[in-house]
């Protein structure tokens, strides 16, 4: 009777679809589940209290409530972007973190280097006001959250509590975003396998 009860638990958790919530930097407004399929989770105004954010070596900390998901981060240099086209250049979205796929629910951190994106997007510099938007898909459609930032070159690392709760983040993933994402990914998969094994062991 052990395995039937485990399958029931899996089905129940899959039925709870609360999408994802950005933890750091702080999003434009409190998470509204029903609005997350909309631009910036339904928030169309930039906040006045922007997060001072590292120009290089930033991180994003987010909570995924889907077991398998994709994400991408885009940037706007408008002061108050209120629609998707303001995250566009003539060649499409201004991407800061390229599209990636990940498995695992819970708090997940990944690197974001806005200075590197400045090569393709003019206006990304020390002191600039920018907005980042996380594009997420956990299998129930595209979801969006935004954070309004002021970039700082003096701030060489995020605050210590920014990665609070993330077990996967590494201080040495800045040598190429792709490599970092892959490294981070294999860790969370390993953590998932381990926790599944522990669940099975404790059930026996
Ligand atoms: Cu969802």
Summarize the structure.
The protein is α+β, with helices and mostly antiparallel strands and about 200 residues long. About 20% of the residues lie in helices and about 30% in strands. The chain has a single domain, classed as Immunoglobulins (Immunoglobulin-like), CATH 2.60.40.
Describe this structure in words.
This protein has a single domain (16-194), classed as Sandwich (Immunoglobulin-like), CATH 2.60.40.10. The relative contact order is 0.21. It is built from 3 helices and 10 strands. Strands 2-10-9-4-7 form a 5-stranded mixed β-sheet. Strands 1-3-8 form a 3-stranded antiparallel β-sheet. With 204 residues, it is of the alpha+beta class. Helices cover 22% and strands 32% of the residues. The model is unreliable at 8-15, 169-194 and 196-201 (pLDDT under 50). A hairpin with a 4-residue loop joins strand 9 and strand 10. Copper (II) ion (CU) is lined by residues 17, 19, 66, 138, 140.
């Amino acid at each position: 009777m052990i395995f039937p009860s485990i399958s029931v638990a899996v089905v129940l958790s899959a039925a709870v679809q609360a999408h994802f919530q950005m933890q750091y930097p702080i999003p434009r407004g409190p998470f509204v589940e029903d609005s997350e399929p909309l631009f910036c989770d339904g928030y169309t105004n930039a906040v006045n209290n922007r997060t001072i954010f590292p120009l290089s070596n930033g991180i994003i900390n987010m909570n995924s409530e889907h077991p398998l998901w994709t994400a991408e981060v885009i940037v706007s240099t408008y002061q108050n972007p209120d629609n998707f086209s303001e995250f566009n250049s003539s060649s499409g979205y201004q991407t800061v973190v390229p599209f990636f796929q990940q498995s695992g629910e819970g708090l997940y951190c990944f690197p974001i280097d806005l200075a590197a994106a400045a090569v393709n997007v003019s206006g990304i510099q020390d002191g600039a006001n920018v907005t980042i938007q996380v594009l997420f898909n956990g299998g129930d459609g595209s979801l969006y959250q935004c954070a309004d930032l002021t970039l700082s070159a003096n701030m060489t690392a995020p605050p210590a509590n920014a990665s609070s709760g993330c077990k996967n983040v590494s201080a040495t993933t800045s040598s190429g975003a792709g490599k970092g994402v892959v490294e981070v990914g294999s860790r969370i998969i390993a953590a998932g396998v381990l926790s599944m094994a522990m669940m099975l062991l404790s059930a026996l």
